[in-house]
């Protein structure tokens, strides 16, 4: 057994974290920074964090992940990292020539209390940041929240530090996509375009973290939200933030700063959440929904109804980031499944409440815990087995030990490809997700069927 | 074709080109860590190493915690490795190095698949995390009943002043199991290397020597600095066993805390990765009288000579003969494989930038199949790993590394027992037996090559543009940037998903892998037909 030490009996743990269902803030900020065109993310801390964050993102995307670090030494850790950051900015702009550097912090620089805002101001004043180039920065203490919090912090900072309200509407809708895959970001833009809406989606890692092979390495690939777009988000007609944990703060901050009215929606995973996303876009821009979208919605509905026998009443365990898990849970309930064990590692009281809402029809039969970890999820599964597990790659250890059909979803996925190319948001993404679930369930049926029940036609 | 191309490249020009893109101060600093090998006479070449990283340069280096927890202690299967810090450090070092473990039975301890953390929150930063650490140890004990628990400090722990060692002592007393801490805060030293040293010290202080049971075996050795990536340790173990040599302990692939406790009963230490474990080797010699030798089980020639070295040490004719038999037998398929693969690989070129040891060891594997290494370097090795141990007296410890503790080790009054008499040692040495010797990477480098220490992304790009290698070896962070150029990239940390690559059997795996990578079809298709021939001309269907 891979997880041979996990007992069935659940003892309450107050402090010990075992097999976390989250990681720390800066990696989310690094990911967000990569979604700006021409941007080099920078980690203000000791270099181990940066190496780990780059490695984790690289393994997930199988793409180059470029980022620099202040490389704190013990001296800087005691006396402050100003000299390191100034040196770093000089080296970066001289050698790597990005248009913008997106600085985030680590538990080291946060604990010693470096004032990054003041250091960046000095760098502008001293000319370390060349004319026409930018540095955005955010505070991402690893001991608060999770990687999703880090994403949210960086998105908020890039918006507030770069946007300039001219007072003249650009007629566009801002979309903050949440901590989702490049494929999901592209799908959100496609849906907006189908509605005839001009959108500014930020950050936007599509084309950057699922880029092509051309025989040439390009440090700043095509794609990403441009500085010009970020500058104009204060002139947009509305903002939609997808996923409360990742995107509510940024769109609300834009609302307070620039008076761009905002809506916060669930991630558009599944039928109902996509309905709400399309509706939000429609009302924000004052447009009507074209038939092409109705067509896609109808296709998803059609497949769900066709596949009911395989889905209805099946028990599912889910772990992941709160925005993802909430939307997924609702989708599973919609298609007739029963999510019974649900955990997230990211703190936030609203999680349990939202899960209870979307699983209301099952009442108290649902185990939901936040913040929690995969060790706890595994124990729940040992006490009440499930038919399907949906989790990031780390779930494969539970899936194998308990012999559960397994669908990889979320961050990180280190042992499969697809997540950066095929969306799970929108109606099309819903179909793709459904195909993965059905594939896992039906492969299991085939594997376990006695010969006489091994069917050609499902 | 590649061979001709590389002869025209002058390493001095590459160095100049690299430095021209840096601010002057950075260029000065990096200049010391970039060493062209312009002639075959390498006398006087010095490789700047183990100095702080230039901020913003895009280094591939990690931190002290990674060197301590990730590298040295991570592979031990029956200790609960508890990270004291916010969640990231524990998360990123969770199953991401391919240290394989194989416990002897289904109920033997194996915590490899787990990640334990105190998951510090802001209130722990403000009020201190010692209480939480104690409670976490208690919870870990209550649930898992482990043999031992070790605690790893992360960046904020040192800053807020949590005393992990005091907590370890208190909880050890309370629970009656071995509990010990590592002050391996990420900012210590300048790289993973500091973490190796800190791990060596603590394991020596808290575990080594606790169990004096002597294994019933004739030729007992420790294998130091072998982490069982992709199963390397397993096949080394198998080969040694075939020769009649037994391992008391391996530091630390597939290891257990009891093996560490017992390692002072071995009669020889064979050091594989010099950088990470030479401290334990030295301390075992000083305290218990066990000599050490540098060996390498990478590549058939090195493996054969390492086996012979071990056999020669024991001065037992039966063992010497057995080793020769095994080498002869194992070499047959290796030679056949080399003959086959060489047809497709000879004349091709490679470069490699790996942690602190493999950039040297793997050169042999490439040379066996007729490939040339154009450039190599380490992330975090010291000058002795480049230039050989004879430079150790000249190495100055700079301000960034001065706070890494040097243990003062003395002879153990009861347990010190020289494995050889001074006369025997002298006789062996006079025959050229190389105790405590390591020549380093430099002798491997040929005229026209370039050594780069702590390579940056910009330097990698320049090397690729100017040397145009056929294959590039490094780690996951470099992999996809290199491959975008259309150049195959072999990871020599994780081996991608491959391995084992050690000893004779592993060499065969490696040769097959390099052959596959160099000769895969995919590299020919980078251009679409319409890019190769953009002129439009009418073609009729069926023409």
UniProtKB/TrEMBL annotation, chain A:
Keyword annotations: ATP-binding, Iron, Iron-sulfur, Metal-binding, Nitrogen fixation, Nucleotide-binding, Oxidoreductase
Nucleotide-binding in keyword set: yes
Gene that specifies this protein: nifK
Function: This molybdenum-iron protein is part of the nitrogenase complex that catalyzes the key enzymatic reactions in nitrogen fixation.
The protein, known as: Nitrogenase molybdenum-iron protein beta chain
Molecular-function GO term, any one: nitrogenase activity
Subunit field text: Tetramer of two alpha and two beta chains. Forms complex with the iron protein (nitrogenase component 2).
Domain spans labelled Nitrogenase/oxidoreductase component: 24-441
Named cofactor requirement(s): [8Fe-7S] cluster
Binding note for cofactor: Binds 1 [8Fe-7S] cluster per heterodimer.
GO cellular component, one term: molybdenum-iron nitrogenase complex
Class in the EC hierarchy, top level: oxidoreductase
EC assignment: 1.18.6.1
Family statement drawn from the similarity comment of this UniProt entry: Belongs to the NifD/NifK/NifE/NifN family.
Top-level taxonomic group: Bacteria
Annotated catalysed reactions: N2 + 8 reduced [2Fe-2S]-[ferredoxin] + 16 ATP + 16 H2O = H2 + 8 oxidized [2Fe-2S]-[ferredoxin] + 2 NH4(+) + 16 ADP + 16 phosphate + 6 H(+)
A Pfam family the protein falls into: Oxidored_nitro
InterPro entries assigned: ChlB/BchB/BchZ, Nase/OxRdtase_comp1, Nase_comp1_CS, Nase_Mo-Fe_CF_bsu
From TrEMBL, chain B:
InterPro entries: Nase/OxRdtase_comp1, Nase_comp1_asu, Nase_comp1_CS, Nase_Mo-Fe_asu
Gene3D superfamilies the UniProt entry points to: Nitrogenase MoFe cofactor biosynthesis protein NifE, C-terminal, Nitrogenase molybdenum iron protein domain
One cellular-component annotation, GO: molybdenum-iron nitrogenase complex
Cofactor(s) needed by this chain: [7Fe-Mo-9S-C-homocitryl] cluster; [8Fe-7S] cluster
UniProt enzyme class: oxidoreductase
Reaction(s) the record says it catalyses: N2 + 8 reduced [2Fe-2S]-[ferredoxin] + 16 ATP + 16 H2O = H2 + 8 oxidized [2Fe-2S]-[ferredoxin] + 2 NH4(+) + 16 ADP + 16 phosphate + 6 H(+)
UniProt biased composition (Basic and acidic residues): 1-19
Span of domain Nitrogenase/oxidoreductase component: 63-518
Enzyme nomenclature, EC number: 1.18.6.1
Lineage: superkingdom: Bacteria
Keywords: ATP-binding, Iron, Iron-sulfur, Metal-binding, Molybdenum, Nitrogen fixation, Nucleotide-binding, Oxidoreductase
SUPFAM superfamilies, sorted: Helical backbone' metal receptor
Iron-sulfur listed as a keyword: yes
This protein's record includes keyword Nucleotide-binding: yes
MF annotations from Gene Ontology: ATP binding; iron-sulfur cluster binding; metal ion binding; nitrogenase activity
Region annotation Disordered: where it falls in the sequence: 1-41
Family, per entry: Belongs to the NifD/NifK/NifE/NifN family.
Function: This molybdenum-iron protein is part of the nitrogenase complex that catalyzes the key enzymatic reactions in nitrogen fixation.
Quaternary structure and partners: Tetramer of two alpha and two beta chains. Forms complex with the iron protein (nitrogenase component 2).
Designated name of the protein: Nitrogenase protein alpha chain
């Amino acid at each position: 057994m891979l997880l041979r030490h996990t007992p069935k009996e659940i003892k309450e743990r107050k402090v010990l974290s075992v097999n976390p269902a989250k990681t720390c803030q800066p990696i989310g900020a690094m990911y967000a920074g990569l979604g700006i065109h021409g941007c080099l993310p920078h980690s203000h801390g000791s270099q181990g964090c940066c190496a780990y964050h780059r490695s984790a993102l690289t393994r997930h995307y199988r793409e180059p992940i470029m980022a620099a670090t202040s490389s704190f030494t013990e001296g800087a850790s005691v006396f402050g990292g100003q000299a390191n950051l100034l040196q770093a900015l000089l080296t970066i702009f001289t050698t790597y020539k990005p248009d913008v550097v997106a600085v985030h912090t680590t538990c080291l620089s946060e604990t010693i209390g470096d004032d990054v805002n003041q250091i960046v101001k000095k760098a502008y004043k001293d000319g370390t940041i060349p004319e026409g180039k930018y540095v955005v920065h955010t505070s991402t203490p690893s001991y608060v929240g999770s990687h999703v919090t880090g994403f949210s912090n960086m998105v908020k900072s890039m918006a507030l530090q770069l946007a300039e309200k001219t007072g003249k509407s650009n007629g566009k809708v801002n979309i903050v996509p949440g901590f989702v895959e490049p494929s999901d970001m592209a799908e959100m833009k496609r849906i907006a375009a189908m509605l005839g809406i001009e959108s500014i989606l930020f950050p936007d890692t599509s084309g950057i973290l699922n880029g092509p092979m051309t025989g040439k390495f390009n440090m700043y690939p095509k794609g990403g939200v441009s500085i010009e777009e970020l500058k104009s988000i204060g002139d947009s007609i509305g903002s939609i933030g997808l996923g409360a944990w990742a995107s509510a703060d940024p769109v609300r901050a834009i609302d307070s700063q620039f008076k761009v009215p905002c809506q916060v929606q669930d991630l558009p995973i599944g039928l109902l959440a996509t309905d709400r996303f399309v509706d939000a876009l429609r009302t924000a821009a004052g447009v009507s929904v074209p038939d092409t979208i109705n067509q896609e919605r109808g296709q998803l509905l059609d497949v769900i109804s066709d596949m009911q026998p395989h889905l209805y009443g099946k028990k599912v365990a889910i772990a992941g980031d709160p925005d993802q898990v909430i939307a997924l849970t609702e989708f599973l309930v919609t298609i007739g499944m029963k999510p019974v064990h649900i955990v997230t590692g990211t703190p936030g009281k609203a999680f349990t409440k939202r899960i209870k809402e979307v699983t209301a029809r099952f009442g108290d039969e649902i185990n939901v815990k936040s913040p929690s970890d995969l060790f706890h999820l595994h124990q729940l599964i040992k006490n009440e087995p499930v038919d399907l597990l949906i989790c990031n790659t780390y779930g494969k250890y539970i899936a194998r030990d308990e012999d559960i059909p397994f669908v990889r979803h979320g961050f990180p996925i280190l042992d499969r490809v697809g997540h950066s190319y095929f969306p799970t948001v929108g109606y099309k993404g819903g179909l793709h997700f459904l195909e993965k679930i059905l594939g896992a369930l039906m492969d299991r049926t085939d594997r376990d069927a006695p010969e006489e029940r091994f069917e050609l036609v499902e | 074709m590649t061979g001709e191309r590389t002869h025209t490249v002058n390493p001095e020009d590459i160095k100049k080109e690299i430095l021209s893109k840096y601010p002057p101060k950075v260029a000065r600093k990096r200049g010391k860590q970039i060493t062209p090998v312009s002639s075959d006479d390498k006398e006087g070449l010095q490789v700047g190493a183990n100095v702080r990283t230039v901020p913003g340069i895009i280094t591939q280096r990690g931190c002290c915690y990674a060197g301590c927890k990730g590298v040295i202690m991570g592979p031990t299967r029956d200790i609960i490795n508890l990270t004291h810090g916010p969640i990231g450090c524990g998360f990123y070092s969770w199953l991401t190095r391919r240290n394989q473990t194989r416990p002897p039975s289904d109920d033997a301890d194996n915590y490899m698949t787990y990640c334990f953390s105190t998951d510090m929150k802001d209130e722990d930063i403000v009020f201190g995390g010692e209480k939480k650490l104690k409670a976490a140890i208690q919870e870990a004990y209550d649930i898992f009943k482990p043999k031992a628990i070790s605690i790893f400090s992360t960046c904020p722990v040192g800053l807020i002043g949590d005393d992990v060692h005091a907590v370890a002592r208190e909880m050890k007393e309370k629970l009656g199991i071995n509990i010990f801490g590592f002050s391996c805060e990420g900012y210590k030293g300048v790289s993973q290397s500091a973490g190796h040293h800190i791990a060596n010290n603590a394991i020596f202080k808290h575990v080594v020597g606790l169990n004096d049971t002597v294994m019933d075996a004739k030729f007992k050795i420790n294998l130091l600095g072998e982490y069982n990536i992709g199963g390397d340790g397993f096949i080394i173990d198998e080969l040694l066993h075939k020769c009649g040599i037994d391992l008391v302990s391996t530091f630390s692939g597939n290891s257990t805390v009891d093996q560490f406790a017992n390692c002072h009963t071995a009669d020889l230490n064979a050091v594989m990765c010099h950088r990470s474990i030479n401290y334990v080797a030295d301390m075992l010699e000083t305290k218990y009288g066990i000599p050490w030798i540098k060996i390498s089980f990478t590549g058939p020639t090195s493996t054969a000579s390492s086996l012979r070295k071990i056999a020669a040490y024991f001065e037992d004719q039966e063992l010497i003969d057995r080793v020769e038999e095994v080498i002869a037998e194992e070499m047959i398929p290796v030679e056949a494989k080399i003959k086959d693969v060489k047809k497709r690989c000879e004349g091709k070129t490679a470069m490699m930038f790996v942690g602190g040891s493999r950039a040297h060891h793997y050169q042999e594997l490439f040379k066996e199949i007729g490939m040339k290494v154009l450039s190599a370097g380490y992330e975090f090795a010291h000058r002795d790993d480049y230039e050989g141990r004879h430079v150790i007296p000249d190495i100055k410890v700079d301000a960034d590394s001065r706070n890494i503790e040097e243990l003062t080790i003395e002879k153990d009054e009861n347990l010190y027992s020289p494995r050889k008499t001074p006369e025997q040692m002298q006789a062996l040495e006079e025959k050229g037996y190389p105790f405590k010797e390591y020549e380093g990477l430099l002798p491997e480098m040929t005229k026209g090559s370039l050594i780069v220490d702590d390579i940056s992304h910009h330097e990698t790009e320049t090397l690729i543009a100017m040397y145009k290698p056929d294959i590039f070896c490094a780690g996951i962070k470099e992999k996809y940037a290199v491959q975008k150029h259309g150049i195959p990239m072999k990871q020599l940390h994780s081996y991608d998903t491959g391995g084992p690559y050690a000893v004779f059997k592993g060499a065969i795996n490696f040769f097959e892998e390099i052959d596959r990578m160099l000769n895969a079809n995919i590299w020919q298709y980078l251009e679409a037909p319409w890019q190769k021939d953009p002129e439009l001309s009418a073609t009729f269907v069926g023409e």
